[in-house]
Design brief:
Order of helices and strands: EEEHHEHHEEHEEHEHEEEEHEHH
Radius of gyration: 34 Å
CATH topology of the largest domain: Nuclear Transport Factor 2, Chain: A
Subcellular location: Nucleus, Nucleolus
Distance between the termini: 82 Å
Number of strands: 14
Helix content: 10-25%
Shape: globular
Number of helices: 10
Domain PUA: 167-242
InterPro entries: NIP7_N, Nip7_N_euk, PUA, PUA-like_sf, PUA_sf, UPF0113_PUA
Protein name: PUA domain-containing protein
Mean pLDDT: 81
Family: Belongs to the NIP7 family.
Length: 252
């Protein structure tokens, strides 16, 4: 008969462990615990495989308001530089003129719910007192990140771009309506264009009264526009002020 080492409750004065016969009827099964690791049920089960935690989705990381990381900052600056050029440094270095504090500081960029906000340091400090789920936004939204991580400027940035843009185009009064409905600018609608404009430059679309209507990308250089056909597209549409009516729910 085989003997195994068992742990059981024994009277005081006796050892904690003793050799007992597994067939002994005096040993109560409910108090017997097998000490042999080879017979322990836990050792017969394979240990669970511990997988590393899944990476945090991009959208989850962008829910809470925070400064932009290096990659996000590069994407935003590349888009802004296409319109402002060297004037980009004035966007962040100029003193802020908004905020409840006597010295609002400078402007900075913050990311909240996939949207990039341009706000003074004073407003950002005050916004930290608001619970993140209740915070709708802070400052001026200038763009948003898509599900794939690409950054796009939105119409909210129109006034900011118009104040620092290097390239502009002016539309004829009777053609403004077409652009405000989301159409690109043909040569027939073009009244003026900034000299030295190159294809691919970001341009702000203005009315003849110098009211910013939207922005886009130059499809042709200023010299090519003079030689192009009447129906040739000279500015590719990106955003216009008419979106405040056409896409009200999306912009909010």
């Amino acid at each position: 008969m085989h003997r195994i080492r068992l742990q059981c409750h024994v009277p005081k004065g006796q050892g904690r462990h003793q050799l007992l016969d597994s067939s002994d009827p005096t040993v109560s099964n409910q108090y017997v615990q097998i000490k042999s690791k080879a017979l322990c049920p836990q050792t017969l089960r394979p240990s669970p495989i511990r997988h590393p935690p899944p990476p945090t989705p991009i959208l989850e990381r962008r829910r809470a308001m925070r400064p932009l990381d290096e990659k996000e900052t590069t994407q935003v600056f590349e888009k802004l530089f296409k319109f402002t050029g060297p004037n980009l440094k004035h966007l962040l270095e100029r003193p802020a003129v908004e905020g409840p504090d006597p010295e609002p500081g400078r402007y900075c960029l913050r990311l909240h719910r996939n949207r990039v906000y341009y706000a003074s340091e004073a407003l950002v400090r005050r916004a930290t007192a608001v619970a993140r789920p209740r915070l709708a936004g802070v400052g001026t939204p200038i763009g948003r990140f898509t599900h794939h991580g690409a950054f796009h400027l939105t119409v909210h940035a129109l006034d900011l771009l118009a104040a620092h843009a290097r390239r502009r185009v002016w539309l004829k009064p009777d053609t403004e309506r077409s652009f405000l409905f989301g159409n690109s600018v043909p040569k027939s609608s073009l009244a003026r264009i900034t000299e030295n404009t190159k294809a691919g430059d970001g341009v702000v679309v203005m009315s003849m009264a110098d009211v910013p209507l939207g922005f886009g990308v130059a499809a042709r250089s200023a010299q090519d526009c003079r030689k192009a056909d009447t129906n040739a597209v000279v500015v590719l549409h990106q955003a216009d002020a008419g979106e405040y009516l056409r896409k009200e729910e999306e912009l909010m």
